Amino acid sequence: MKESEVKSTGCGANEVDASPQPLSKGEGLYYPADSAEGLCDFVAFEGRPPYETGNKEIWGVLKYRARENRKLQTEAEGKLWQSVRASKLGHKIRRQHPIDIYIVDFTCVIKRVIIEIDGGYHLDSEQIQSDNERTFYLEQKGFTVLRFTNADVENDLQTVTSKIKNLLDSLPDIPYVAD
User: Which of 154, 18, 25 is nearest to 80 (CA)?
Assistant: First the structure.
């Protein structure tokens, strides 16, 4: 190898033809959608990109719990995920995604929609109160919260996905900007 082929990476190590380092989180531009002319409209964000919606102070805990929730999903969550993943409804859906201090079952961040799948324990009076407070808080943040039961998903998945798709199609793209 010739000495002219060796480039410094700027961090004390040398590499052969090192590619540029990626931008740090929060740098750069967010590109929400293609415009009618085929060119990409863009919105510049200061700070975090719009999909990073979790509370920064407890991010480590949120990230860990979200990963665990993905591994331990319920049967209904798994069934719905297979129907909405990979933009099957025409919209990017994330699962077990942190939003501020909460981890929501599913969300389309750009449409500001949250989809919750409620199991049997959600019928407990204390859990109903907690769910109502959580829903109110997330709605105050500008999100629309859709709730379905496990039975809804397991018995009539087509209706559930149709309701989700119809809502997402009816809403404008609103990039999330963290507080």
Answer: 154
Q: Measured in Å, how far apart are the chain's first and last C-alpha atoms?
A: 51
110: exposed, middle or buried (Cβ count in 10 Å: 0-12, 13-18, 19+): buried
pLDDT for 52-111, tens place per residue?
789 989 999 999 999 999 999 999 999 999 999 999 999 999 999 999 999 999 999 999
CB distance 50 to 175 below 8 Å:
yes
Neighbours of 91 (CB within 10 A): 19
Q: pTM (2 decimals)? A: 0.71
Closest CA to 98 of 88, 89, 107: 107
